[in-house]
Every structure is written in structure tokens, then in C-alpha cells.
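Subject: sequence -> C-alpha cells, single chain

Hey, anyone have a minute? Need the predicted structure for the following. Not urgent.
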Amino acid sequence: MDFALLRERLHIVAERIPEIGGTVRELVMDPPATEAEIAEAERELGRRLPVSFRKALAEFSSNFIRHWIFPEAFRLTGDLVGIFGGSAHWGLHPVIECESQRKDWVKNVFSNPLDEYDKVWHNKLAFLDLGNGDFLAFDLNGGDDPPVVYLSHDDGEGHGYVLGRNFAEFLDHWSRLAFVGLEDWQWLPFVKDRSVGLDPECGLAREMREILKLNL
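Reply:
Had a minute. Here:
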């Protein structure tokens, strides 16, 4: 991921959303994590962090938060009607808490690895809490830089969908979609099936950028 380009896209979104009457909350972008801080988190997790996620923490920010929302009177239409805002956030300490919560869900609710729904929650590393019981997670079946997948706790349509082949691709494609979501109904218009991830060049992605006049 080109972090200079990521900053540019963040700036574009932060300027454009207020122009249509929307709200952009104050940016949180803490300094990058040190190698010692990352190593300590990995010891607590009991595993090494995925390569491109580790790189983002070490070179971009150890704790990042950016939220925006459309004004109440503004609505997209058609297949884009469910989109109302964007919510990008991740960090070194949040991944520890997210993973603890994922393990609790597996222990108490999704404990059967032979069940088709339950098994999606297994062998994952959760890193982003949507605040509604759903998570974004790394699929640990995917090597040292694994795919980003969606975990739904309540039969959401996006359960188990891949959002990017790794964190770098996910972040690149998501930033071109103005960080929409993260509830699955907000990003589902930009995926053609459960295995290919977000497509920032699909027709609906281009349509959304044109409507919002976003050069991303």
C-alpha cells in the first residue's frame, strides 16, 4: 500500500463530505508502532501479525480512526441506497481486544467447526470490531499475508465474504470506496461474489464516486 496515496484519499473524502452537508469526525492517527510494541502484541496474541497489516502499523499508524456520515437529507438510490457513511478504524491494541471477543463468540456461540456457519469463525484473527457483534478478520488459512474476511454474528449476507486478498489490497480498494460501511449491506454492492473482494472499478463503485464527485 502507498501510504502517501492513502493520506491523499483521506484528505479528498474529508473535504468532499462536508461540501454536501455531511459530517467527518476528527481524525485519529497515532504515530506508527515500534518494533518492540508490535512484538509485545504478537506475544500476547501468540502469533505473528499478517505481513501487510504489520507494515501498516509500523509505517502508517498504530491506531487509526476516521468516520464520516451523509447528511440526513442526502440519500443514494438504487443498489447504493444502503450506504450512509464510512467507518475506517484499526490498531495494534484493538486487534488484541477484537481477537479476545472473537474467541468468546467461538466458545459460547459458534463452537462447532463442522457446522458451515460456525466454521467461518474458526482459525481467524479478528482486527476490527463493527460494534454490532460483527468483525473483520484475517483468514489464517491464507499464509503469512492472509485474506480479510467478514464475520457476521446474525446470518448477515456478507458472512465469510473475502474483502481483500490481504490487508494491503483491502485498504487500497476500500479507500477508493471512501471507506464505506462497514456493515455488509454497505459494501456488498461492490463485490461480485464471496471470494474476490471489493472491486473499486465495478460499475456501482464508479457510479458512487461520480455522484459524490470523489476522485479516488
